[in-house]
Every structure is written in C-alpha cells, then in structure tokens.
Amino acid sequence: MSGLKKGAITLTGAVAATCAFMGPATSIYFNTGMGVQSAGNAFGFAFLVAMIAMLFVAYVIAQFAKKLPSSGFAYTFSVNGLGSKAGFLTGWLLVGGYAMLSPMLLSAISYFLSLFFKVYFHVNISWGIFAIIIAATILYLSCSGVSESIRVALVMLIIEVVVMVIFFATILMHGGAEGITFAAFNPSNTLKPGDWNGIGSAVLWSILMFVGFESAATLGEETKDATKNIPKALFYSVIGIGLFFLLGAFSAVVGYGPSHVSEVVASIAKGTNPWDPLFTTFWGKGASVIVMLVILNSIFVNLLSGFNAVTRILYAMGRENVFPKALGQVSKSHQVPVNASILYMAVSIILTLVLGYTWDPMTVYGWTGTILGLVLIIIYVIINVSLFAFYRKIGEFHWFKHGVMPLVATILLYMPMKGVIMSTLPAGGGKAPMTYIPYVIVGWFLLGIIYTIFLSIKRKQVLENMGSVFE
C-alpha cells in the first residue's frame, strides 16, 4: 500500500496547521491569567523570553528537518542521532505525551459546548455527548484527507486570529484604562520587586502556549519541497503566533491599566478570567457570546491539527514495525493513516470519558495538558542532544550551528522544565490529581524500557532497521 500523499501540503498549509495546533486564541485566553499571577505586569516580558527560547528550539528542529523530513518527528531524529534504542524510547515518550492531546482538548471543548447551550439556550446536554460528537467529526475530517483538514484549519485559524486582533486594536485605539504603556515588557514590573522566580513561572506558562509549533516536522513527508518549507514553517509559526501573544500581553496591560494589577490578580484568584472584564468593558455585555464562540473555534481547530500530527507519528512507528504494522498503512483513497487515526481516537474518547466522569472535564484539561507540556519540554531537550550527535555522525558538524545553538536551547528550557515538575510535587504546592503525573510519566517510560528489551531479544531486526527509510 502506498505511503502518505506527497506534495499535498503547501508552505501556507504547513504554517496554518502548525499555528492552529498552537491554539492562539485558546492559549492567550487561558494562560494570560497564569502569567499575570506569576509576573504581574511583566508577563509580556516572560512571553518574549519564551518566544526567544522557542526560536532556538525551532532552529534545532529545522536543522534536522533539512536532512530528515519525516512524519516521525522526534522519533526519527533521535533514532538517527542517538541510535535505535534511545530513538525508540524517545518515540515511546512522545506517543505517551501526545496521547494526552485529544483527551485534553475534547474535555475542554465538550465542557464549553455544554456550558454554551446551558447559558444561551437553557438546554442541559451532558458534556460527554458533545465529546463523542466532536470526536466523530474530527475523525471524519482527518480521514477525508490532509488537504481537506488543513483547509478547514486555515479558515478557522483566520477567524480566531482576526477576531482577537480586532479586539486588541479596539483596546489600543481606546487607550485602555490609563493610556498606552509598555509596562508589560519591563522585567521590573513584577508583583514583588526583583521577583525573577515570578518571571520564571510566567516563562513556563508562556512556553506551554507555544507547544505544538514542533508539529510542522510531522508534515515533512506530505509537504512540497519539505527540506526548505518545513524549516520555514517552523520559524514563521513561532514568529507569527509569538507576535500575536506579545500583542495580546501588551493589549491586556493597556486594557486594565498597570496600577490595577493587584485587583486583576485578586479577581483571577476568585476564578475570573482577566479577559472577560476587558471584553465587557470594550465590546459590551454581548461580547461574552463572541468570546465563547472564538474559544470553541480555537479549541476545535487545535484538536484537528494536533490529531493529524499525532497520527503521523503513530504511522511512522508502525511503518517501521515498532508498533503494529497496521498502523503504518494508509487508505487507498486519501492516503491518510486511517488505522492510526481510528486507534488514537478510540483511546482518546475512552480516556476523556473515564477521566472526565471520574474528576471533571476542566480537571482533565489541566492534568493532561501538564503531562503534554512536560513531555514535550523533555523531548525538546532530547532533540537538542540528538542534533549534536547526528551531525557528528554524518561528518557535517559545525561547532556553532550544531553545538552552541542546541546548548543554548537546552539552557533556556531548564527553567520551564523545573517549573512544570515542581507544579506536580507536594513540595511545589501540587495537589491530587496533579501529584499523580510523575508516577504516570515514569511508569510509561518504564513500560517503554521493558518493550525495548523485548524488541532487542525477540525482534532484534526491527531495532536494527529503525530509521533505514532515510538511509
């Protein structure tokens, strides 16, 4: 059976899918409050630091994408850089982290849809029903072909970005509460003088907003002129959405006024999203409907793009017989990994419903999102190390490109990685179910080690052939 459809995605499509995976409206809406609580008015500075860190990571991924334009992403990079066993464990860890993506977003969009119908139509519909409907819709679109999925993602991405940018412009043209100010980008404007720990925490939440930009690499086998366009897509996505985040931070501080930051933090502690009062102030009471629709739009397109990225990784590992061979097959009609898509959505909906009814949908959103964020930060570090090893192996090593750049990227990731880990420990204020996260990740990794041992004993040839598709 043939592989993925070559040349099905243009540069514009790759950028659209990547930006959609980052969920710009969803990220700015939910994470701004976290940034303000941590760094006060200086959270815009934290956004800037996070953007710089992600540009370094994007550079590293781009260096790999020039040589290995694979749907396997970090799995393929690590196999070719660190060897088959380390590569498999990287892929195993990546699959475990990315497995949390659909449950996270299905929980969120289902909760908000249920709330939307309850508030505006006075109809009570269980969020679980919406989860099943949305899951079926995403699966249908994904299996209809990558080009169709990306066209939907592009339209919906434009809608969310345009609406939010118009709102930012409204605040800035009005002058906000106290006039135009660049307080958001001054690192001294923390809640407590010289609070670099606060800025560090805000950087953590900011980096989590960029999670998903790396998914451009999973489209390597379907993108036209991938060795050139995937690196471009990585940088265009980080810069484009990064500027969107910076504009959002700037607009938020201008909107509520720097002197009111203590009041904003107090309202966040009571459960108020800082954007809600701003929408009401500058667009009126009816703006709540617009906000809800934009967020629903953003989560849906985030889910669609993320789902496609995850199924490509499963496909790549199935193609090499690391996972069941059926996962490495594509449909004849649309050349998409249908088997991988069906399996991933089945696991996702089961996790969503079981965890959602055990806890609640928004707890599932936070729990699965933290696992995803922590795993991807670890994956970024592994990719940095792999780049160093890969270019030495092929004899094209450059001390700055393949040594200094990944080292700087790794150093910049230390703070957010420490922050995520601490948030899951009792010593860092973590509470159940967040405290379960380290056990889940370590347990998953140990299962990967056991499976690696099995492969090395029973299926040694599979390990030896990993990455051969690019040799």
Write the layout of secondary structure elements.
Blueprint: H1 11-22, H2 24-39, H3 43-65, H4 74-82, H5 84-98, H6 101-121, H7 127-143, H8 146-174, H9 196-210, H10 226-256, H11 261-269, H12 275-283, H13 287-319, H14 338-358, H15 361-393, H16 400-423, H17 437-458, H18 460-464
Structure commentary:
The model has no long low-confidence stretch (mean pLDDT 92). The protein contains 18 helices and no strands. The protein has helices at 11-22, 24-39, 43-65, 74-82, 84-98, 101-121, 127-143, 146-174, 196-210, 226-256, 261-269, 275-283, 287-319, 338-358, 361-393, 400-423, 437-458, 460-464. The chain is mainly alpha-helical and 471 residues long. It has a single domain (11-470), classed as Amino acid/polyamine transporter I. Helix 1 (11-22) crosses helix 13 (287-319). It is 73% helix and 0% strand.
